[in-house]
Amino acid sequence: MLFNCLHRAHYGTDDMRLPFLLLSLLCLLSGNLQALDTAALAAALNEPGRDVADRVRDPVRKPVEVLDFLGVDTGTTVIDLYAAEGYFTYILAKAVGPNGVVYAQMPPRSASGQDDRVDMTQGDALQQKISAGNLTNVVRLERPVQELDLAPESVDFVLISQILHDYFNTNPLRGQQMLEEVRALLKPGGVVGIIDHVGNPDGDNRRMHRMLKTDAVRIAEQAGFIVEADSDLLHNPADNHRRSIFDPMLQRNSDQFLLRLRKP
After folding, report:
1. 33 and 2 in contact (C-beta within 8 Å)?
2. Which of 38, 96, 209, 253 measures 20 to 30 Å from 18, CA to CA?
């Protein structure tokens, strides 16, 4: 990301003290700093190799608009945290392109869990997408977040989609600690995108698989992030926040908040 590169150029490191303008020029010439081509990404999501069931979900999940809001660039290194059956893994792989890398993470137990749409495990569903889309830039990481074995400050972007509530609702400190672990992997200026189901302040959000946006903001700030922006892009006023996100009446179209966090 251009912001990340200029940030490093300005502040420098112990072993790199190139003048700001020179390093900025090198950053601009790098293939890692091309802005997302939203038209090209939209076209890629309609290619024959993509799962038709995922295409059906696009009008609700608005993946091109979401990644554009979050500032995902081509050529960058990203983590799809708890990739599940790979809906966003495929999209991120197309977004970052052949010069980028997508780490599709999920714990081993989740990888062997049943996909909620088809008769296969989530790991098998993910692998099917990788193979069908020829996603050579995807690396599967079937390990817990705290055991990813990635170098500190080596990642540009992390997507945490519809999973923070599970960490937080078990124990708010667990949610904060997960964000702290993610923060350690991010480069200075790196971004985290959070998507989650809007909760009810008076409801049983753990049972409903929801959370309050204010809680997400609070633990993000406690984990050391700047909450840079939020968006109503995934807002659904028809959602009843007292219902489970798995209620068939919702048809997988819950009211969701969208946050962009920045590592200082």
Report:
1. yes
2. 96
